[in-house]
Design brief:
Keywords: Oxidoreductase
Order of helices and strands: HEHEHHEHHEHHEH
Largest sheet: 5 strands, parallel
Number of domains: 1
CATH architecture: 3-Layer(aba) Sandwich
Strand order of the largest sheet: 2-1-3-4-5
Protein name: NAD(P)H dehydrogenase
Mean pLDDT: 89
Organism: Sphingomonas glacialis
Structural class: alpha/beta
Shape: globular
Number of helices: 9
Family: Belongs to the NAD(P)H dehydrogenase (quinone) family.
Helix content: 40-55%
InterPro entries: Flavodoxin_fold (IPR003680), Flavoprotein-like_sf (IPR029039), NAD(P)H_dehydrogenase_qn (IPR051545)
Radius of gyration: 19 Å
Distance between the termini: 23 Å
Length: 229
């Protein structure tokens, strides 16, 4: 327990929210999400999977959800997801790549939840601070093709810049990296899958250590500020 921290800060668990976009309960990406959460819990932090397919998440952005719409309103399901994300220290996206891109349900989650009330000129001018500011963004993806092939055809750059870097910039998130597993095909060897999941657990351990260190640094800064007054 860190001396000088408020009771709420001492007791609040660091939470990881994993947004899973995979329709198969027994899929590789589902195993990735579960392995990540299991390791986070083993590190003494909290983890929750938001399984978009299992939830029946509606990926379609209605016109009334656009901030410029005269009848703008925030739907209850979006408000619920935002409430979950706001309690997280880490937000992880886990998904397969289909035709070189994330599933539509992931893009729909980004559009409807992260983009709720989003107006780009307002963000660019710095007039509005994101409620997700300072949270760590982490991504895991898998595909049948290899990463060199994705790079050769521009898809890897598109994903890293068009999703990871863009979201980190406009929502003031910390880019925690993107782990990609390639050559995930029917009949993939069990040993390869075990190695991939071991890599997931290692990333989870490093991420837990990073957010815990950041919390301690904030608490120490707060204590020094308190003592200086």
């Amino acid at each position: 327990m860190t001396h000088g921290a408020t009771p709420a800060a001492q007791q609040a668990a660091l939470r990881h929210v994993v947004v899973l976009g995979s329709p198969g309960a027994g899929s590789f990406t589902t195993a990735v999400a579960q392995a990540y959460c299991d390791e986070v819990r083993a590190c003494g932090q909290e983890a929750e999977i938001r399984d978009l397919y299992a939830m029946g998440f509606n990926a379609l952005l209605a016109n009334s959800e656009r901030p410029t719409a005269p009848d703008y309103r925030q739907p209850a399901d979006v408000a619920a997801e935002l409430a979950v994300l706001e309690t997280a220290a880490v937000i992880s996206f886990v998904y397969p790549l289909w035709v070189g891109m994330p599933p539509a349900i992931i893009k729909g989650y980004i559009d409807r939840v992260l983009g709720a009330g989003f107006e780009e000129p307002e963000r660019r001018s710095g007039d509005r601070i994101s409620t997700l500011r300072g949270k760590r963004l982490l991504s895991f993806s898998a595909s049948a093709s290899t990463r060199p092939w994705l790079e050769e055809h521009g898809q890897w750059t598109s994903i890293r810049q068009g999703i990871d870097s863009y979201l980190s910039t406009v929502f003031e998130l910390v880019d925690g990296g993107h782990v990609h597993f390639d050559s995930i095909v029917e009949g993939v060897s069990e040993s390869y899958v075990r190695q991939c999941l071991a890599d997931v657990r290692e990333v989870a351990r490093r991420t837990c250590a990073a957010v815990l260190s950041e919390r301690h640094a904030r608490q120490n800064d707060a204590r020094r500020l308190q003592l200086s007054h």
